[in-house]
Structure formats: C-alpha cells, structure tokens
Amino acid sequence: MSSQNQPNLRIPGPVPLPDDVLKLAGSQMINHRGPEYADMLDRMTRNLKTVFMTQNDVYFITSSGTGAMETAVVNTLSPGDKVLSIIIGAFGERFAEIAEAYRADVNRLSFDLGQAADLDKVRETLKGMSNVKAVIFTHNESSTGVSNPLEDLCKVIHEESDALILVDAVSSAGGVPIAVDAWGIDVVATASQKSWISPPGISMVTFSEEAWKAYGESTTPKYYLDIQQYEDYRKIGQPPFTPCLPAIFTLEFALQSMVDEGIENVFARHHEIAQHTRDGAKALGLELLPDPKFASNTVTAIKLPEGLDGKAFLAQVTKNYNVILGGGQKSLAGKIFRVGHMGWVEKSHIDEALKAAEETLKSMTS
Amino acid sequence: MSSQNQPNLRIPGPVPLPDDVLKLAGSQMINHRGPEYADMLDRMTRNLKTVFMTQNDVYFITSSGTGAMETAVVNTLSPGDKVLSIIIGAFGERFAEIAEAYRADVNRLSFDLGQAADLDKVRETLKGMSNVKAVIFTHNESSTGVSNPLEDLCKVIHEESDALILVDAVSSAGGVPIAVDAWGIDVVATASQKSWISPPGISMVTFSEEAWKAYGESTTPKYYLDIQQYEDYRKIGQPPFTPCLPAIFTLEFALQSMVDEGIENVFARHHEIAQHTRDGAKALGLELLPDPKFASNTVTAIKLPEGLDGKAFLAQVTKNYNVILGGGQKSLAGKIFRVGHMGWVEKSHIDEALKAAEETLKSMTS
Question: Which among A298, B13, B52, B182 could bridge A342 via Cys, Cβ 3.0 to 4.6 Å?
Fold first, then answer.
C-alpha cells in the first residue's frame, strides 16, 4: 500500500491517508485567530455545504464523532422531550444513550442486526405517538455494515410528524449522498476520520432553521458544544476554542478536492469500490451480514464461518499479511469481520485485504 | 526560525513545533483499538503522572482546553452546588461561565487585571462561606501573563474548607511545577497545544479520589466528557471515542522527552526563557502588565505605550518581521501585546520577536 510497507488499515475509520495528506497533517501551527485561519474556515464552510447540498449552517468542532452526536442532542432537546430513537446497531444505541443522558424521554424502535429500519414500522410507530420532538438515528451503522434508506426514512418521518430529524452520519457522510435540504434533515453529524480523508480530531454538524428554533427553546445545559458559540465566532472568521489544526489542514484540502472532483463522482467511486468488495467477498463463498438491499457503501460486514475463532482470525490476518480488519462489536464479536472502504481506497487495497482473509480462512479451516 | 522561513509564532498557543514533532503529527493512522495504541496509552499515562507528580488517574480527551475545563465541572458538580470562582482574567471568567452553564451556584471573587489572587482575600471569602463544594480558578492567566501562586492558594483553600480544587492549568502545565498530590489538587485541566509541544486536539485531566467521590454524587448530565467512560476503556487500553491521533503521536513523544530530560530541567528551562523575555522587554523600556512577583513563566504580557494603535502594531510586526505576537483580549485589546514562550522555544526566537517589537514601536512613534 505504500513504499514504507505500512499496514493496509481497513477498519471503518480512522482511514489511512495518502502521503500528501499526511504532509498537510504535519504542517506547522498557525494563529487560529489570524487571517489565514479565517480564509480556511470560509472555504471549508462553503465546500462542506456543497457536499451536503445545503444552505443550512455548518460547523467544525474539535471532538470525535460522538461529540457531534452530542452536539445535535444538547442544542435541540430539553429534558423530558419525547424522542423516537430508531436503532439498527451499536451506534444507534449510542445515540439513544446520549439523548437519555441529557434526560430526553427516549422511545426505542429497534431492528435486528444486519437489517435496516423498516419504513412501515417507523410509520406505524410515529402514528401511535404524539408530540415527538425529534427522531434520531444512525444513517450508516458501521457496526453491521448497513445503511438506512435515508431519503425514504426522512419522507416517512415528515409525513407522520413535525419532529426534528437528527442524523448520525459519522461513517456515511462524504461517501454517500446526503441531500440535507431536499430531504429536510435538521442536524447531520459526521467526523473527519471517515470518508473525509483526514485524521480524527474534527467533527462536523449541519444545523437547520428548525434546529435553531429548537435551540432557542432548549434548556439543556451546554458550553463546549454550545452551537451559538460556534456561530458567534464564525461571523468573525474564528473558532470559539483552539481547533485541532492537523485535521483542519487536511479537511480544508479534502473538501476542496471533493468539490473539484464533483461530489457525484465521489459518491460513484464509493459505490463502485463497495460493490467490488461485496463481489469479492461473495466470490470467496462468504456471506454478507447485511440485507444486500441496504449494504453500506463505506464498510462491508462479512460473516465468518460458524465455529471459527474470530479473534485469532483477525490476529493472523494482521500478523501474516499486514492487513488490519475490523472485528465485530458486542454480540457480533467473533462472528463477523469488517472491511472499511471509505475515503482514499483503491481496488488493490481491497483485493489484498480479501486475499489475506481468504488465505487465513483456508489455513484455519484446513 | 526554520529553513522554510516560517513565521516566528509567538502567541500563547498553539506553540510552534520542531520538525521531528511535525513529522510525527503527519504519521500514518493506526487502529485505535489495537495493541499499538494500548502501548502508547499506557506509556503516556505513566509519563503524564510523572510530570504532574501524582498517583491520581489521568485521562486524554479529544477536545480543546475548554473541553477539559468542562470535564472538571460536569464530573464533580451538581446543579445548585456552591462554587467559589477566583477570577484574575478572561480564562477564569470562562471557568465560572462553564460552572454556571451547568447550574452551579457560582460566587465570583475577582481581582484586577495584572494581579494574582490575594491569599488573604481568598481566606476571608472562604471564612464567610459554608458548604463550598469546589473552588475553581485558572492557574496561569494567559490573557494577562499572570500566574496564581498555586501551592499557597491550595494551602489556604484546604485550611479554610473541604472544597474540591479544580484548576485550569491549560497554559501552565508542562512548563511550570504542579505537584498535584502534594498540593492536594482534585482536577487539573490542560491541553496539548501549550507547553506539551504538540498540535491542538487532545486535552488532559487529572482526577483524584475525592473527585471520584464527587463523581458518584454528581447529577450533572454528561456523555462525551463522562470520565467513567475514559476509565472503563483505559482498563482495556483503549479510548472510549476515536482520539485525535496526530496529537496522540506527538504527545507520546513529548511526554517521554520531558521525563527523559527530567521535569525539573523542563521547568528550569521555562523559567529561564521567561526571565530572558522579561529582561528583554524591560531593556526596551517597556513595562510588564503583571505584578512582577506573579509574572508567568509561559507567556509575557507587555504594555504598549499609551495612545499607540495596538492593532496596527501587531499587523506591522507580522508584515515587516514575520513575527506573530498575541494581542490583548477584551478590555486589554490594543493596550498590551503578549509573547508566548512555552514548549519548544529558544532565546533567538524571543530576541527576534522583541527586536521586531522594538523596531515597529520606533517606526510608529518617531
């Protein structure tokens, strides 16, 4: 994968970075309250809006993706607010836990691991509820390799409620289309180390007019993630708090590159490499965990043969082939492996990873 | 300052980084849930304890320093808790605002800009209060170049109360001694882009047994900054959330370097360069803002001649000399300039900065 014999890092983030991006991450520090930063922030803001096809506000926060999910919650909800939490895996559950931590009245609608949210069940559930303040869910469940049908889901939610739509798109945004305005999404949360070809350190959110109205009513305590501070400082071309400059430097470059490439081309590229991964896994006789209709374009979850020691499998793949795959989490631990294919990834990276899996499976089952 | 003619960045953080550190910041991504990260976290934890002379727990969080200050507040306080907030400048005020945002009953004890906290007044104030849950303050007020007498302050607080001591040491820790255990400090907050010779992205906290007791009673909502999550994951050698790897790579190196150099030597080095800066400013006939007894060893605040256009001064220093100085904040805007000297800094950096200030002042007043 590189001249320095680096491992082929195929976990679903942090994504491996090409040399020119690594060089940017290692750039000298600048004054984050100076004109150079203001210029960067301005360009990043415009380009991020282009990727999200939105006129809504967008902000850059120094935190992991979980911080962005918390930003969505604390800026729009108040204790006692009724929330419908649609859960198809570990990250959807985390989103519910965040809302609960801030005392929202969280109602869970859960689906089997490997499945996407069922639109009819969502519709039925919303029909049976009143005064739902927000519907929250994970777009792309990287723990199961499943993408929820975001456009259709938003349509059903808007038809059946006046609820805000808060979306954890940490592992999908930048790799698959999210038409924030057309689909009416109030807050989208994502993070630099995923499809954005950057190191971890910066999370990003979009924030709609409806979200701002909810902000005005929110009594949830907040400070570091208080979106008003980000807005006040954005107006003077500054961050409210010292930002993670290495990820800012790379994000600025990545966002410009995506816009230059054309976002349709970026999304097409992600679709293609995902299909290549799925085809490759099937060609090895392996079964995907997700329902194929909802298989993710940023990470593929593949079932391991029953009875196989999943932990030993991952360790051998790394030891013998210098390939780092993702494992299964919680109840899926040892039962699946995951191949990340977001951001900068070439077919040869995938082929090498699948070859390593194939050879290791052979050696473990022969 | 470097072969690439980089600006001489003399703001009080982010600090400029030497080439070997920049190279580390541009290292390839790794699996943050793998053995390599676990090894790093273990070493960093041990070395950070050494620098803080403590047996208390220490944690690494992906946020700015303000996130670490918020971590101190949300994990130890509950709404209604009585807090004494000692304020000598902008960052002390911020700490009070964070506690207020989370509904603590904040009592402010403020001192004039340029002064440290008066120990007698702190004693007197505490004598007049009961049931103080926590005393919070900024150790080194980078907005005024003043360091509070931390050891003495802790002594007075312990003599007059059972309050927790929560210290914002964002811009002092790593450059000046903070004997967490000997002085009985419950939470210290700091951040990577200051004396730690790293880019911004990671904040750090220490957490005492008393702080853990307070955690058990705290009803403040929290999730991303919930210290229990950091503790639970530390036990398995992982971060709870994807960490800012560039700053982790550099911090691991910087902490090891500090321990190898000997922390007394690190502190002596900071004292020496600070004295060099103060002497240099005085030699130019300029007056320091702070009371000399409490002048900071990480940043020097210098008064501008009355009537001078401070904004134009900073702009000219940058334009004509490629030196970036800090300005004054809020009521000090235009009245002072600040020279950062924490982390990696040589006398030539300071001399160059002071020379630029001198020449610019000459040209503006002639």
Answer: A298
CA distance B271 to B52: 17
Is the domain spanning B8-16+262-365 CATH 3.40.50.720? The answer is no
Nearest to B350 by CA among B267, B276, B266, B265: B276
Backbone angles phi, psi at A188, to 5 degrees: -115, 135
B357 Cα distance to chain centroid = 25
Walk along chain B (366 residues) in steps of 10 and give the mean pLDDT of each run: 72 97 98 97 98 98 98 99 98 98 98 97 98 98 98 98 98 98 98 98 98 98 98 98 98 98 98 98 97 97 96 97 95 96 97 98 93
Q: In this complex, which of B6, B22, B242 lies closest to A65 when CB atoms are compared?
A: B242
d(CA A172, CA A293): 16
Burial class, B20, CB count within 10 angstroms (exposed 0-12 / middle 13-18 / buried 19+):
exposed
Q: Write down the H helix ranges in A58-139.
A: 65-76, 90-101, 119-127
Longest dimension (CA), chain A: 65
Quick check: B67 and A64 CB within 8 A? no
Q: Does A64 sit within 8 Å of B223, measured CB to CB?
A: no
Contact assignment for B63 to A65 by CB distance below 8 Å:
no
Nearest-by-Cβ selection for B22 from A28, A224, A244: A28
* Nearest CB partner across the interface for B31, out of A11, A30, A222: A11
Amino acid B110 reads S
CA B58 – CA B52 distance, rounded (Å)? 9
Selection from B37, B129, B42 nearest residue B86 by Cα? B129
Whole-angstrom CA distances from B71 to A161, B220, B230, B241 are: 36, 11, 11, 15
Residue of A nearest to B5 (CA): A28
Per CATH, the number for B19-260 is 3.40.640.10
Residues B5-28 have pLDDT tens digits of 689 999 999 999 999 999 999 999
State pLDDT tens for residues A215-253: 999 999 999 999 999 999 999 999 999 999 999 999 999
Tokens of B157: 């607080």
Of the options 3.90.1150.10, 2.40.110.10, 3.30.70.1320, 3.40.50.11460, the CATH number for the domain spanning A8-16+263-365: 3.90.1150.10
Q: Name the strand (E) or helix (H) holding A259.
A: helix A245-261
Inter-chain touch A243–B29, beta carbons under 8 Å = no
Minimal Cα distance from B225: which residue of A? A67
**What is the C-alpha separation between A353 and A324, in angstroms, rounded?**
8
Q: Tokens representing B107?
A: 């009592």
Tell if the CB–CB gap between A25 and B29 is shorter than 8 Å: no
**Quick one: which of A137, A100, A142 has its CA closest to A121?**
A137
Q: Which residues of B touch A36 (CB under 8 A)?
A: none
Residue B10 to chain A, least CA–CA distance (Å): 9
Does A135 have pLDDT greater than 80? Answer: yes
If one counts every other C-beta atom within 10 angstroms of the C-beta of residue A91, the result is: 24
Delimit the domains of chain B by residue range: 8-16+262-365, 19-260
Please enumerate in sequence order all residues whose Cβ is within 8 A of that of B98, keeping only pairs 6 or more positions apart, or say none: A223, A224, B66, B69, B70, B73
Q: Please state, in angstroms and rounded to a whole number, the distance separating the CA atoms of residues B7 and B5.
A: 6
Asked if residue B341 lies in contact with residue B299, where contact means CB atoms within 8 angstroms, the answer is yes
Contacts of A220 in chain B (CB under 8 A): 221
pTM, full prediction? 0.97
* Minimal-distance CA residue of chain B relative to A97: B223
